[in-house]
Protein 1
Amino acid sequence: DADVTQTPRNRITKTGKRIMLECSQTKGHDRMYWYRQDPGLGLRLIYYSFDVKDINKGEISDGYSVSRQAQAKFSLSLESAIPNQTALYFCATSDPGPTDTQYFGPGTRLTVL
Amino acid sequence: DQQVKQNSPSLSVQEGRISILNCDYTNSMFDYFLWYKKYPAEGPTFLISISSIKDKNEDGRFTVFLNKSAKHLSLHIVPSQPGDSAVYFCAASRRSSNTGKLIFGQGTTLQVKP
């Protein structure tokens, strides 16, 4: 079984709709992250969380919100989706330690029409 | 402002030859660097990393070189295999900030031809 899972894997929605992307992990890590990948731009950090009570904005948080329901669950919401939020979204986890290695889920492909 | 840059969007090499992927960074506060590999329809997977106190780290066919004065790192794959065909991302972090945040480059698509 995968250590980091994301649901849904693919989603097509319309402008103005509310969308939630979910991430679960069994690695027991405290830190969780949401990224989006766009062609030519690499991965950009949207939000990150160190524990249930600690949520931080990344470099591109506008238009997004998150919820850390438990250590193992971290959800990303688009309150009112717009076409330029069409992208690949990745969740990742890590633990503080000698390295900053992050472990990624398989991604969600979101299309906003 | 792209703090981590991979200026080559793509690279094509012959099986058995060396693949060299390059990455430049601008922030001298970065002290840890990682390479990730990504296959289609999968998430990035960690490949190899290097601390700023080193200039080389090797793991099997993969070697990462760091030139701090030039703010440049490179990933060498020797010998290249068709299964190495993927998108490669370099990433940098400031471990001293204790945020675990990674700044990624744009990625380089490597194609290894049989």
Protein 2
Amino acid sequence: AAGVIQSPRHLIKEKRETATLKCYPIPRHDTVYWYQQGPGQDPQFLISFYEKMQSDKGSIPDRFSAQQFSDYHSELNMSSLELGDSALYFCASSLGRVEAFFGQGTRLTVV
Amino acid sequence: KQEVTQIPAALSVPEGENLVLNCSFTDSAIYNLQWFRQDPGKGLTSLLLIQSSQREQTSGRLNASLDKSSGRSTLYIAASQPGDSATYLCAVPSGGGADGLTFGKGTHLIIQP
């Protein structure tokens, strides 16, 4: 069965650089979510999209933005990266906001 | 604001034991609850989803129960195996019309061979 695909799996950036993370949800899922999981922490909700429209915002910094495209893939754009942005970033998708299926995540390291 | 607590934070048991992981949440107005497994540095694998109308859900050696009124869920793992070693996370909808899930901090489980 198709799963949520995230790319890249690993990313190393320097402080103040920009990063773009991509997410390809499960086909026919209507909702995409982004989460951030810091070292030793539980995942924190960042932002969600329902049918390509932004649905809700959580603890997403102003330096971050996201969008969902016509083919339903989503991108998380992160600018002016800080050391504290180093984390695992997960994308999840669901159909009808019921069961959420998570991707394998992108590990971002800011040096 | 929804808060999720998981007890114990860590657990180490010999192979073959049956064990129970606990999850509690503060806002009982949830429509479902999910249990996830996470291996170190890896993604979240959905183990079980319990709808608010259900009392329990089973998948293989896993059984999850939900008591909405008391704000509690348990994950029962039967006949534990070393391959069950991982962190188990409980998550509920954040509520208040918000999207997204609120997670507990997880139970780090080690099954000794």
Protein 3
Amino acid sequence: RKEVEQDPGPFNVPEGATVAFNCTYSNSASQSFFWYRQDCRKEPKLLMSVYSSGNEDGRFTAQLNRASQYISLLIRDSKLSDSATYLCAVNGGGADGLTFGKGTHLIIQP
Amino acid sequence: GAVVSQHPSWVICKSGTSVKIECRSLDFQATTMFWYRQFPKQSLMLMATSNEGSKATYEQGVEKDKFLINHASLTLSTLTVTSAHPEDSSFYICSAREGYGYTFGSGTRLTVV
């Protein structure tokens, strides 16, 4: 079983719509969770850290469900500029690096 | 915010030659840096963890003699791909942990011909 799984998409969504992605992780000892955005042929950029209580940053909301071992990302009022690949990343704790999912490709259509 | 500078951005080399990639933390000290590799349409895969002043820790399946890592100072880590082959062509990205988060370099696209 893969450590971090995401639906690769693509998700084709009209501008202004709300879209949600989920990501599941297999390591129950995981401690830190993140959503990154990656544009084509670029490095990933941090979108949000994901906290146990859930957190919101403008149009973006992230949730963590430890019992079911998944994290989610909700994008409201989507913009054309939101088109990108969204990577879920998990850290096992301590000084570990991140384990990434393959990413979910989002295409916002005008 | 924290900045990690990575060079070169892209490199084309001949099969059998070696390529060195540098990563510098510009405004903070990074005792630990991480090196990732990303093949097309794949996820970023952690290759190794670079620790300042000590040997790097490699992930399973990553050849330590092929991917040489040096972390001689708190602001610089290097990855050398030795005797590169076409199958080593990939996107290599470094990352440093600063506080709670991780900062990534801009990546190096390596093409071996």
Protein 4
Amino acid sequence: DQQVKQNSPSLSVQEGRISILNCDYTNSMFDYFLWYKKYPAEGPTFLISISSIKDKNEDGRFTVFLNKSAKHLSLHIVPSQPGDSAVYFCAASGGATNKLIFGTGTLLAVQP
Amino acid sequence: EPEVTQTPSHQVTQMGQEVILRCVPISNHLYFYWYRQILGQKVEFLVSFYNNEISEKSEIFDDQFSVERPDGSNFTLKIRSTKLEDSAMYFCASSERGAGPNQPQHFGDGTRLSIL
């Protein structure tokens, strides 16, 4: 099941710089997209979401961009902080279902 | 901030035994979910539960699995006769309403299930 793909398994960024995490999807029925952050030995923590009727949603240092024509979304973190180091999962849902379809995750390392 | 709590954090069980994983969803939430993550793989949906019945289940959720909300606070996942391939992290999640804008699912810290 490759409906949601995160093609970069890892990303390393300097503290204070921008982190950009990418996600692609294939299912046109998806209408709700979410980003979760996960630390080791903890569950996924909800970060930010976006509806398919929008192309941008911002919450503090986190901004999610949605490009429906390209079936692509990205999470921007500005400025990046060492505490942002975690695995970031993209997830999607839509149609007649509530279930979330997850990507494989991207491990972000923010270097001090 | 309200959170989803799961117990136990780690469960070790012999193959063929029954196991019950427990979850306390966020109190005003109405939709409940179980997901699992096998080591090195994606987080996968198992089942969703609303109004005291299963609303959706995946192919993984076969007759060996069942869910229950035995009282007003707990939500349980039972695996009747565990297999080696059931070894995984099991995450419980809840949401205030169904999917849609501003209805994120909130996850617990998971139960690591190890089948010997």
